[in-house]
Amino acid sequence: MHLIALLTDFGLEDGFVGTVKGVIKSINSRADIVDISHNITPFDIMEGALVLRASYSYFPEGTVFVAVVDPGVGTERRPVAVKTSRYYFVAPDNGILSPVLKKEKPEKIIHLTEERFFLQRINETFHGRDIFAPVAAHLSRGVPIEEMGREISSLVELDIPVPQKEGGYLVGQIIKFDRFGNGITNIEEIPPFEEIVIKNYRIDRICRNFLEGDSDRPNIIRGSFGFYEVFVPRASAKEKFGLKLGDLIKIKLKG
Amino acid sequence: MHLIALLTDFGLEDGFVGTVKGVIKSINSRADIVDISHNITPFDIMEGALVLRASYSYFPEGTVFVAVVDPGVGTERRPVAVKTSRYYFVAPDNGILSPVLKKEKPEKIIHLTEERFFLQRINETFHGRDIFAPVAAHLSRGVPIEEMGREISSLVELDIPVPQKEGGYLVGQIIKFDRFGNGITNIEEIPPFEEIVIKNYRIDRICRNFLEGDSDRPNIIRGSFGFYEVFVPRASAKEKFGLKLGDLIKIKLKG
Amino acid sequence: MHLIALLTDFGLEDGFVGTVKGVIKSINSRADIVDISHNITPFDIMEGALVLRASYSYFPEGTVFVAVVDPGVGTERRPVAVKTSRYYFVAPDNGILSPVLKKEKPEKIIHLTEERFFLQRINETFHGRDIFAPVAAHLSRGVPIEEMGREISSLVELDIPVPQKEGGYLVGQIIKFDRFGNGITNIEEIPPFEEIVIKNYRIDRICRNFLEGDSDRPNIIRGSFGFYEVFVPRASAKEKFGLKLGDLIKIKLKG
Lengths: 255, 255, 255
Hints:
The structure is a homotrimer of 255-residue chains.
Chain A: E1 3-8, H1 16-27, E2 32-37, H2 45-55, E3 64-68, E4 79-84, E5 88-92, H3 98-103, E6 106-112, H4 127-140, E7 149-152, E8 164-166, E9 169-177, E10 183-185, E11 193-198, E12 201-203, E13 219-222, E14 228-231, H5 237-240, E15 248-253
Parallel strand pairs in A: 1-2, 1-3, 3-5
Antiparallel strand pairs in A: 4-5, 4-6, 6-7, 8-9, 9-10, 9-15, 10-14, 11-12, 11-15, 13-14
């Protein structure tokens, strides 16, 4: 019996998530459902992709992930399911799986076309309920992914900014803030450096824990998203230093 | 073993929902609990009723629904349980079940009076914890609803506005906004029409998906709540057009 | 098989909670996980402690509580696990367990040092994922708490304000607001009194339910947190009377 993990931008106000779970339980009463997040910023595919990337590998083998941030719901964007060596992913084909599938090699990509695995009446505003939830429930019951549609060879790619080399600098940027106001950057590795520049602040070291940081300037730490983060101890770096998405982190490289 | 689905205005900050679940698990350790929503606007019985109506039918037969938006907690308003052919509903008798029970015929309505199915000490500010949760847990264990109190014949009715015919128009209104800023109306069916008027905008068609809509005016689609909705592609119609609860949708009928 | 109940300040936006659950399910696929709250104000140990205190006793015997509000994550503050006659508690040693352990006598306090019960790679920003979740999962599988580290004799105490006698008054204060805008005080018992003073309002009775209160002044009721609360019917006392944390409640004692 597989675990089903849900990530959406449906929010927790309107009952959308509960409805999705009702659908799953109607198809597989023993499904074990875990929420990753339902508070992805509406329509923000990149944010959903980053949160999924940060969390999926902590789930047990066989987990079926349902990732629905889907501004194109009801249009011709394809509903898909992907099998990797360890997991299943069910999502609209809009790039939300890109960052994960750079780390987990897809073994099979299926365009979901077999309507017998959908709800009988489909509303074009809510495929999370009518297509993705029932498909995930059937997968969790052991229906082979191949039966759910026809195999395709590639998916839409998400254009996530990567750090750039410019002169003697490696230049990254803030791509997300977490609830504590930490600024998650797109920098996974920091080579030997002379200094790091964020806005008008110059930083000369990487912290090992949050309280080691200074209170009067931004600090850098390797965070739990798998990227370096900008923080300030016991407070919101976003608010304290007026950080914004896209703010640059310039690493002056050694030598 | 029945599923228990929870809908409340308790919020997710204070631990109220966790406490309710602890009570359920103490009575039925194998209860399977699903959240519909706990972020109903405080005291907003109609919103709770609409969200319950939109979601309940997607749950498996036998589900026990607990719906607690309860400004009258501790007063003489009655705690009740209702059995329909497919489901159980546990709630304060304040109208929150009205819209559902227009669609699901009640077979038995019980005024919950048997205190042996409540917690032993009852605080008059939290019947969700002390009355509704334990009753639902006992129902999920198979205790017959008849044992839980005395049968009554009717419940408080909720006064939900319905669309009105005025001259050559059918006039509905916005009764809720969802998290995406879509305006849910009280219009379930739209007859053949010449045009639809919302504020100063004139609309000549019903969209089939969100991206088909225009960006510079409100659009109409049949939404997942079972009502027509006012939307704008990839943005909040509420914010973009300054929509408010009660705003009118005037449908100029043909012929 | 034990229940695991989670209380954190991780929020529901970033996937932190989902990741914690993935870790638990990877170690104990049959763990039954219940959320108490993840919306504790960031870094607010006292709020977390109060919410845990209000809810824990409603859970079944054997429940493993994980309470992580942890501004000192990654520093030398100790990760601990506590066994009482009925429950287990896993938390950073920063006072978050103080109010509970005044009510539940600890039988064993363990400083978590056995790294074989942690994740293999530990990020110093996320012990909820890397230390507390796996330890709780192992406890829920029946691993004896003694194996997880060395016994210690005491924990950090939280300095929660208690009501003071001043002249003929018992003086308490507001220590938390709940989602409805009720002001939770630190007063557990109110002796016979002449009047109660909140700001410029004088109150002469304790209400038994919310609707019994007056609409034009603060009212007092014994609330579900186990403390007396300041409220106003069907509205937010916090907003209506401009209440703040620390506002005093002065009880003029009889005789």
